[in-house]
Amino acid sequence: MKNISKIIFLENFFKLILKIATLIIIVIFLLMFYSLFERSMPSLMENGFYILFGSSWDPNIKLFGGAPAILGTIISSAIAIAFAFPISLSIAIFYTEYCPLRVRPIISEIMNLLAAIPSVIYGIWGLWTISPIIKLNFQEPIIASIGFIPLFSGPAYGLSIFLASLILTIMITPIIASISMDIFLKTPILLKEAMFALGATKWEVLRHVVIPFARRGILAATILGLGRALGETMAVTMVIGNSYIWPFQSISLFSPATTITSKIASEFPESVIDLMHNSSLMSLALILLLFSISISFITKFIEKGVKYR
Amino acid sequence: MNLRKIKNALIRITSTIVVVLITIPLLWIIFDVFIKGISVIGLEFLISLPAPIGEGGGIANAILGTLIINAMACAIGLPLGIATGIYLSEYSNDSTFSTFIRTIIYTLSGVPSIILGLFAFALIVIRIGHYTAIAAAFALSIIVIPIVAKATEEGMRAVSIEIREGAFALGLPKWIVVTKIILGVAKSSIITSSLLAFARISGETAPLLFTALFSYYWPRGINEPMASLQVLIYNYAMSGFEAWVIRAWGASLLLLLLVLFINILVRRISTR
Amino acid sequence: MYKLRVNGLSAWFQNKQVLFDIHLEFPEKKVIAIIGPSGCGKTTFLRCLNRMHELTPGARVEGKVILDGKDIYSEMDAMEVRRKIGMVFQKPNPFPHMSIYDNVVAGLKLMGIRDRKILDGIVERKLKEVGLWDEVCNDLKRSGAQLSGGQQQRLCIARALATEPEVLLMDEPTSSLDPASSARVEALIRVLKNNTTIVIVTHNIQQAARISDFTAFIYNGKLIEYGETKEIFESPKDPLTEKYITGRFG
Hints:
The structure holds three protein chains of three kinds.
Chain A: H1 4-47, H2 50-53, E1 57-58, E2 63-64, H3 67-98, H4 104-116, H5 119-146, H6 161-185, H7 189-197, H8 202-231, H9 234-239, H10 260-271, H11 275-308
Antiparallel strand pairs in A: 1-2
Helix pairs in contact in A: 1-11, 3-6, 3-8, 3-10, 4-6, 5-6, 6-8, 7-8, 8-11, 10-11
Chain B: H1 3-38, H2 43-47, H3 60-91, H4 96-110, H5 113-128, H6 133-157, H7 161-168, H8 174-185, H9 187-203, H10 206-209, H11 229-239, H12 242-271
Helix pairs in contact in B: 1-12, 3-6, 3-9, 3-11, 4-6, 5-6, 6-9, 7-8, 9-12, 11-12
Chain C: E1 2-13, E2 16-27, E3 31-35, H1 42-48, E4 59-67, E5 70-71, H2 78-84, E6 85-88, H3 100-104, H4 106-109, H5 116-129, H6 133-136, H7 149-161, E7 167-171, H8 179-192, E8 197-201, H9 205-211, E9 214-219, E10 222-228, H10 229-234, H11 239-245
Parallel strand pairs in C: 3-8, 3-9, 6-7, 7-8
Antiparallel strand pairs in C: 1-2, 1-4, 4-5, 9-10
């Protein structure tokens, strides 16, 4: 047997290594804020609130207004959530109540695979396969019939904030759906059986027991999905058209637009030689980071509530 | 039939239709990538460097680049993630400090990957003065850490008190109990999460755009710009040249096969 | 000659005292049974004898446990104590990620003993000692978790014996086993006492009568009576003891 002092030394050494690893993670976290903030400073000092509210972006005349990108991010994500929420809920409803037991693994596998597909592949699919189809069979007929409504006015580009929202919907549905599926399954059997014993239909049990029980969890899952949509980069960059005309020159959902992430992804390489341009893109990133942090805190807060119930 | 039953039947039908509808994009993407990608995949495509448009060429440097960058990201991320998981599970006593670390890890897992790329750019690329695969690996490692840390902590916490006491009763020091017994029992969940993390970073593109950038040559060193499958797909797909777009589909097929293979494999392991 | 002496032992969980000032001596190479109704503190008492009690958060001990003249709390390191005083648990707990072979020598191998010949010898000797050798000698590489419950428990006894402990603590080692497996473990205990001092906690009064040389009756955290098993069972001095062993309560 090794002597005790050597064991104690190794014990402390091991603990020290673990402590150092956790400290490195804290340092990384803090450095992330610091680095982004540091690179954003020149632009924030120069542009002030224009980066938040300004509508023009022209590096040649040092105009850096981020509003179209920020609005593009928020609106495209909001539309995606509006679609993904009912879809996910339906999937979870089918999964817990209506689907045969042996089909369940297939559904969760579908959700897993949808979530696993890399976003750049959603991007190439959206850009080269979906965009022409949407343009021809969806946008053009709609513009022809109700194009007088500004929201649906032409011309049809294919690449648009509408297409971005559509792709985002497919990408965040598996996230919201799989969490909702898990939460639905956790409904106490006794509560459900009590309802069934009263002669309730499956939908009534869902409506009055399962969904109320899962409400907070579904809310957290939805906000989590929103976070994913806000930060999604590649797929959006490839299908949104990266144009600054939306929403100030055209509010049509069929118009090409931009988001914080697509603005950064498409302009960053060329911005490196121009500090103010680069710094302005970093400011947009900082805004996105603040969005994402807030979402983490909100979901954490909601989940805490779930635990105590 | 009364109204309640009709309502129930309606919900049953709608939810079934929605589930059928959501499988359409999944199958569509897989078939689409497969059909468009398979035509370009051949020996030359897999083993040679990119060539100018119209002269054939392949994507071998990008395949190699993705593997190198992933390996480096795992080399940084796995030890940090596993060590943090061990600390949280075995040494933290649920103090305020460990709540703080858990919050940080949870928050990191929600940070958009593009931000991690910009962070690596600001921290490493600017200081070094050129694009480098090291910065890419650093950015991706921040994606690996939360995945692995969470799985390690949960896997180790799941080890029963009986097993722990059995180990302590043999007179083993705590660090041996932790590394050889508890970690050993939790091994499979850690391996599973590492594989999933590998699959996840294989598909991440945004963190590479401002770090590893791209290269048309073989990797010459890790402190150089480096090609990757992901960035190649993005560049080629956005180029608009048919010959390149078709190569982007070919690269997508490889990437999709890798990611789906790992995901299906992992689920096979963990359900057994 | 006393192997182990317990001197004024008290124990707490958080602020709740569960053992009150226990004094006891264990003679060498005998089987000592600790009996008492569930929740009386007998398991806690056992866990104080090799410093396992202190692993529970908020647990605390006072008093002395003297092994061959040395107090295990103030004069020895916890790891050293646990090597000299081995333990077998209520539920068989083989390490599920290890083979049968590695389970037996876990305590040695993980402390740096790597000599294949030595380990091979110990595995064979200990598995023979617990009567498992014939059943498993052809698949020592198999996972220990695949054995039956009774086999697992004997494997755990072999594992505890591999570090050559001088005292073996057994916490209701047969309570999760079927009667046939229990009988095998009991027979094993009778053999083991040739080399080892054995302290066994049991809620099975007949078992205590069958296998032990001395019996201690603990009730509500206090030692009520201690003496030779024969005397305790034939002429208990304390009315509480008599009530318990005749099955009139608990």
